[in-house]
Design brief:
six-stranded parallel beta sheet, alpha/beta, Rossmann fold, five-stranded parallel beta sheet
């Protein structure tokens, strides 16, 4: 049995460790060096770094028995391309979902653009923990360069974007962060609004929400893509075991 695994995420690391322990030859695909760093050396696991378009995915997946998509919950375009490539070659696609945590008293927005519009008429400092990819969508907010505090990965790509947008308050760091670390960051920057994705337990979501509640900060949560359907970590492990034993048809 051969497997391909997408995702430089904590879920991806956990399922890679399981595949390794089962002796399943697995090609792991991560988009960035940061994703590669998530994956420690493991027997039977080969890590490939670099972004693949849909044609590239078809080229590398055609000979695999199963493909496990453990990309970030908000990487909707990547999941769409992986699913499409699997459909073209008839390869079994398995979506590994990150557990989502409910939060009371939050405002939910469909996407980052919607969150920025909600903040457009507000006052006070805004803490953005939604990554660097769509930072430009916050520029609709009056005085965004002064009002925003963005916490992003310490990559040159992120640094270049923050410089280009003229952001004056940037925290370059890799999470997840503890509640106390969040509390200090929010207090140090006099934050009144927090924008976060529903990143789940492994993404430090609860620690951010708890810190925000302690400081009475208004929280806006970006909803997860509605297309998200899949299996939990334990369900994926069970499915792998069934496929290996022949009790689950690999092509269904």
């Amino acid at each position: 049995m051969r497997a391909a695994l997408f995702g430089g995420t904590s879920e991806g690391r956990r399922i890679a460790m399981y595949l390794s322990a089962k002796g399943i030859q697995t090609q792991v695909y991560v988009a960035t060096e940061q994703g590669r760093d998530v994956m420690p050396p493991m027997p039977h696991i080969t890590v490939n770094t670099g972004r693949l378009d849909s044609d590239g995915m078809v080229r590398v997946l055609y000979n695999e028995d199963i493909v496990i998509d453990a990309t970030h919950p908000y990487a909707a375009e990547a999941s769409k391309n992986i699913l499409s490539a699997c459909a073209r070659d008839g390869v079994r696609y398995i979506r590994l979902l990150r557990e989502e945590q409910a939060a009371d008293g939050m405002t939910y927005a469909e996407d980052i653009s919607a969150a920025a519009m909600l903040l457009k008429g507000t006052e006070g400092r805004i803490f953005v923990s939604t990554g660097s990819k769509e930072l430009e969508k916050y520029t609709v907010i009056d005085g965004y360069a002064d009002r925003l505090t963005a916490r992003v990965l310490p990559t040159e790509e992120a640094r270049a974007k923050c410089r280009r947008l003229g952001l004056k308050n940037v925290i370059y760091a890799r999470g997840p962060f503890t509640e106390e670390e969040n509390l200090k960051a929010f207090a140090d920057h006099d934050i009144r609004h927090l924008v976060t994705k529903s990143s789940g337990r492994t993404g430090g979501f609860e620690e951010k929400i708890n810190a925000a509640k302690r400081l009475k900060i208004n929280v806006i949560v970006i909803k997860r893509p509605t297309m998200e359907k899949g299996l939990s970590f334990d369900e994926v492990k069970e499915l792998i075991d069934r496929i290996r034993s022949g009790s689950d048809d690999i092509h269904t």
